[in-house]
Specification:
Blueprint (H helix, E strand, L loop, with lengths): L1 E4 H15 L3 E5 L22 H5 L4 E3 L4 H13 L3 E8 L7 H8 L2 H4 L9 E6 L14 H5 L5 E3 L4 H13 L4 E6 L6 E4 L12 E4 L4 E5 L3 H14 L4 E5 L2 E3 L3 H11 L2 E8 L4 H12 L9 E5 L8 H4 L6 H11 L13 H7 L4
Parallel strand pairs: 2-3, 2-4, 4-5, 5-7, 6-7, 10-11, 10-13, 13-14
Antiparallel strand pairs: 1-8, 6-12, 9-11
Helix pairs in contact: 1-7, 3-4, 8-12, 9-10
């Protein structure tokens, strides 16, 4: 085991994939220069040089700054037998290649009757909460959950970042990997041995019996911090990290809600049609019998991201917002009683966004 940062674990996964399979290539903007630290040797392997020195420019290659060209080239390369890992930098830049994602990557296996596969991993970073402005702070993973044929992963820890990325490289379908930049500096012990984390298997970060908190991507840390504080108040919170949104481990979420009877979902994306909305619908369909209160979502509101640090800091889920939502569903928050209205539903009207 080695102490790794999230971004270091991404680099370790890419290095292992390049070493294990000659069909794996890394392409993208400035990958040769190792701008974000994912294509360089780790401190322990500094003598081995960066990825260009280790694997050559045929396998680690810069591209023009044109996302549609990058995505299209990777899809074509995959059709010829390569397994590209594409670094598209900011997640907001995915919009520039939507035709390639939706009409080519996602549909080719279906349209060609299974004769073509698109084993490409598209990595992108969500630079939210960093005052990067409206053009750089998007969290667009829910948009791609709506596209049949794409797999969507949102690792929330260094160990998951490595294990999920290696599974993504071995997938024969296109995988979009969304990395929360606020997590890049987080550290934990990560195995240096080869391991994979299968898609569609959620992680129970913390077990509890009073309320289920499903947290996505960068919200996992806040949910765990909230659960620690809730424990001091006598509220036992179970924290579930889905890890992959397509496929989604709905069984684990439903099973947890059937145990606790309450559900709060936290994610940094916008509220309308987000992952939280989909999870809410699944639980309403499959576990409404177990619910003892309304489902509450803690999300960003449906608005552009302001450049102002003060204004942006108000938008995303925080430990305090998750605490407030849990206390509401558990009936712990002080409330003004509204005549003729069940308390749980009165609470829901004031649910945080």
């Amino acid at each position: 085991m080695t102490q790794m940062t999230y971004i270091g674990a991404i680099g370790a996964a890419q290095r292992e994939a390049l070493t294990a399979d000659e069909r794996v290539v890394v392409i993208g903007e400035d990958v040769e220069a190792n701008v974000y630290g994912t294509t360089g040797a780790s401190r322990q392997r500094a003598e081995e040089g960066d990825f260009v020195q280790m694997f050559g420019k045929n396998r680690v290659r810069n591209t023009p700054i044109s996302e549609e060209v990058i995505a299209g080239a990777a899809i074509g390369a995959a059709m010829t037998g390569l397994r590209p890992i594409v670094d598209l930098s900011y997640s907001s830049f995915l919009y520039l290649a939507m035709d390639q994602f939706v009409n080519q990557a996602a549909k080719s296996r279906y349209m060609f009757g299974g004769q073509a596969s698109i084993p490409v991993v598209f990595r992108s970073a969500m630079f939210y909460s960093l005052n990067a402005g409206a053009h750089h702070a998007d969290r667009p993973y829910p948009m791609f959950m709506n596209v049949p044929g794409l797999k969507v992963i949102t690792p929330a820890s260094p160990a998951d970042a490595k294990g999920l990325l290696l599974s993504a490289v071995e997938s024969d379908d296109p995988v979009l990997c969304f990395e929360a930049v606020p997590l890049w500096g987080t550290k934990e012990e990560v195995s240096e041995e080869e391991y994979r984390i299968p898609f569609g298997v959620a992680r129970t970060v913390r077990e509890g019996g009073d309320v289920t908190i499903v947290a996505i991507s960068g919200s996992v840390m806040d949910a765990v911090a909230a659960a620690d504080e809730l424990a001091e108040e006598g509220i036992s919170a179970e924290v579930i990290d889905p890890r992959t949104l397509v496929p989604l481990d709905s069984e684990a979420i439903v099973k947890s809600v059937e145990k606790t009877g309450r559900l709060v979902i936290a994610e940094p994306a916008h509220r309308t049609c987000g992952a939280a909305a989909e999870i809410s619908a699944i639980v309403a369909e499959e576990a409404i019998h177990a619910l003892r209160g309304p489902i509450l979502r803690v999300t960003a509101p449906d608005m552009q991201i302001p450049f102002s640090p003060v204004l942006e800091s108000l938008l995303y889920p925080t430990k305090e917002k998750i605490l407030d939502a849990v206390r509401r569903v558990c009936g712990e928050a002080p409330q003004e009683k509204r005549s003729g209205e069940p308390k749980a539903y009165a609470d829901a009207k004031d649910a945080p966004q």
